[in-house]
């Protein structure tokens, strides 16, 4: 885990090295000041040596100036190193997420990934800065102060040593109790982010059903869970400050009392006593800083594990060593294909699928909910890999192609349509970043999107809000189809992507496809038989298997499921999930 995270320091290694060096220099200067102060009291003030006071005073000013400069420079280096480290973590995680296959993405929740990119990275950034500065400064200050204290008087310095041992043990017990609570906190952050994300994305539904109070109550519950965990952790940490104060005051009283006795018998000078008291504060404040560092490290340990999970997750779909960079045509063949979500899954979603689709054919796919229609088409563009058998596109196994080449030639309009914030043109050019205005307009005509775009005040420069919230479901679907067409693919897959458009527009789109892109293999998943009955052939899916495959007329004669649904829908009944007579 540490090795994974340290790789992200990258160009900030120099800052990460200079920061602790500056901290050590600052500590040395701070440690020298009480020693010089003792010399001023014993050799200057007591003996009336004004020259000694000026000389040593000058050294004190110089030491303070060097310590101040070292602290400022170290702070600058530390800030640059920690913020740079956080930036690299975010970039590396985001870049790695972009390379995930669908099966990798399935392992993480959206809210969990957002928390890792924000809260968890911030925790690591703060911890890294504290490690570079305080985790270097505190032990160095403690050791230097302890060394100087023993150099002045070993008997009195033993009080410090005993205090350090007792206080260190107590702080360790407090921290170990608090650790378990911090480890429980971050999964709760995921739950809270998921609640917020779900509520904001579905705010129209919430308001339509007047469920604001229910959502507020749900959020309040998740927020309260985080509050309880941190409250319990802080209840343990709250003992740090009083324990530290008791230790400091006890040490000051003991050293003052015993030191005064030693001064009376000339076993200790006044200046040495003053130095010992100053070193007392240094030692105990160093322990306080160390306890703060351990708190931050404890909090960030869970974050570090969660971030490492994202960074170490590797895509289970890779390019072959010598990939093919050309898809010759849009022919598709499934040969004894089995597929299951997850390698450990015992139940296959698709079972022994055998299909042959010719280039340029229009293929319809219908089936009930959960019949694995979407799973079938996801395998063609290698969004998932088969668990058995093989899929050929253009006569070659999809696993032999360069993935970017394959996905550019297999354009998929997914079941859940997504538009991004930006103009209509910017959204269309996701299909082809170099597409001209004329090409975009042609794609929109094919998708029947030009009808509503031309009515908008800014036409193709109309701004689309995040998620396409300012266009209707049918308009969003047509824009997504136009975007897919701009890729000029050899295979076009539409996963129930005309469900929100009226039957007349649906027919226009199918007619445009037949006339304008006859060489493109078109696969249309639909619930309405009217959307697929004009296809060259239709696949009927049932429970992960092919129940029927043929023309509309052939299936009416040979496939009972298809016939029942057709009769149900032509009589004004339901969709594929509602059989005749149900």
Short description:
This protein has about 575 residues and is α/β, with parallel strands linked by helices. Helices cover about 60% and strands about 10% of the residues. The protein has a six-stranded mixed β-sheet. It has a four-stranded antiparallel β-sheet with strand order 2-1-4-5, with no helix packed on it. A two-stranded antiparallel ribbon has the order 7-8.
What does this protein structure show overall?
The protein is an alpha/beta fold. 62% of the residues lie in helices and 10% in strands. The protein is built from 20 helices and 12 strands. The protein has helices spanning 2-6, 13-45, 50-98, 102-105, 110-132, 134-152, 154-201, 203-208, 212-237, 240-264, 270-312, 373-378, 403-409, 424-428, 437-446, 450-453, 473-485, 503-516, 552-558, 560-570, and strands at 332-339, 350-357, 362-367, 388-393, 396-397, 410-413, 422-423, 463-464, 491-495, 521-525, 537-542, 545-550. Strands 6-9-10-3-11-12 form a 6-stranded mixed sheet. Helix 10 (240-264) packs antiparallel against helix 11. It is elongated and about 115 Å long. It starts with a helix and ends in a 12-residue tail after the last helix. The model has no long low-confidence stretch (mean pLDDT 82).
């Amino acid at each position: 885990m540490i090795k994974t995270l340290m790789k992200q320091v990258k160009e900030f290694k120099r800052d990460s090295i200079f920061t602790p060096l500056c901290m050590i220099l600052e500590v040395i200067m701070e440690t020298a000041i009480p020693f010089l102060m003792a010399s001023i009291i014993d050799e200057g003030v007591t003996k009336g040596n004004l020259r000694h006071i000026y000389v040593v005073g000058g050294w004190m000013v110089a030491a303070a100036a060097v310590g101040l400069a070292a602290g400022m420079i170290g702070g600058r280096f530390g800030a640059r190193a920690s913020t740079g480290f956080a930036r690299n973590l975010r970039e590396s995680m985001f870049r790695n997420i972009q390379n995930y296959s669908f099966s990798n993405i399935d392992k993480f929740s959206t809210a969990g990934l957002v928390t890792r990119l924000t809260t968890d990275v911030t925790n690591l950034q703060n911890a890294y800065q504290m490690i570079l500065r305080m985790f270097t400064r505190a032990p160095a200050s403690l050791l230097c102060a302890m060394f100087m204290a023993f150099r002045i008087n070993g008997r009195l310095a033993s009080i410090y040593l005993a205090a350090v041992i007792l206080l260190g043990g107590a702080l360790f017990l407090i921290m170990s109790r608090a650790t378990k609570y911090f480890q429980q906190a971050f999964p709760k952050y995921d739950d809270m982010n998921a609640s917020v994300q779900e509520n904001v994305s579905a705010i129209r539904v919430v308001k339509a059903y007047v469920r604001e109070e229910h959502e507020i109550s749900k959020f309040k519950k998740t927020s309260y869970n985080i509050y309880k965990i941190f409250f319990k952790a802080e209840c343990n940490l709250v003992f740090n400050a009083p324990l530290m104060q008791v230790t400091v005051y006890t040490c000051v009283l003991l050293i003052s009392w015993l030191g005064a006795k030693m001064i009376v018998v000339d076993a200790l000078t006044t200046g040495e006593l003053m130095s010992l008291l100053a070193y007392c504060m240094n030692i105990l404040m160093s322990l306080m800083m160390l306890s703060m560092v351990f708190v931050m490290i404890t909090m960030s340990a869970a974050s570090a594990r969660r971030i490492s999970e994202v960074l170490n997750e590797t895509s289970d779909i890779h390019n072959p060593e010598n990939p093919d960079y050309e898809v010759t045509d849009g022919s598709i063949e499934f040969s004894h294909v089995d597929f299951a979500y997850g390698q450990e899954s015992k139940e296959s979603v698709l079972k022994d699928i055998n299909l042959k689709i010719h280039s340029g054919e229009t293929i319809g796919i219908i089936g009930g909910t959960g019949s694995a229609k979407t799973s079938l088409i996801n395998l063609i563009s290698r969004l998932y890999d088969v668990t058995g058998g093989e899929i050929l596109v253009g006569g070659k196994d999809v696993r032999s192609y360069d993935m970017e080449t394959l996905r550019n030639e297999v354009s998929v309009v997914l079941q859940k349509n997504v538009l991004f914030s930006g103009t209509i043109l910017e959204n269309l050019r996701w299909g082809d970043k170099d597409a001209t205005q004329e090409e975009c307009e042609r794609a929109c005509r094919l998708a029947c999107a030009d009808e509503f775009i031309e009515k908008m005040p800014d036409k193709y420069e109309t701004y689309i809000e995040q998620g396409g919230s300012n266009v209707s479901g049918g308009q969003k679907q047509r824009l997504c189809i136009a975007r897919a067409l701009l890729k000029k693919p050899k295979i076009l897959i539409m996963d129930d992507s005309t469900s929100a458009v009226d039957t007349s527009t649906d027919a226009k789109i199918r007619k445009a496809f037949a006339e304008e892109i006859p060489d493109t293999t078109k696969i249309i998943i639909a619930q309405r038989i009217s959307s697929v009955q004009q296809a060259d052939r239709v696949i009927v899916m049932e429970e992960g298997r092919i129940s029927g495959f043929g023309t509309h007329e052939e299936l009416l004669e040979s496939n009972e499921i298809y016939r029942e649904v057709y009769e149900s829908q032509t009589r004004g009944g339901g969709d594929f999930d509602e059989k005749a007579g149900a």
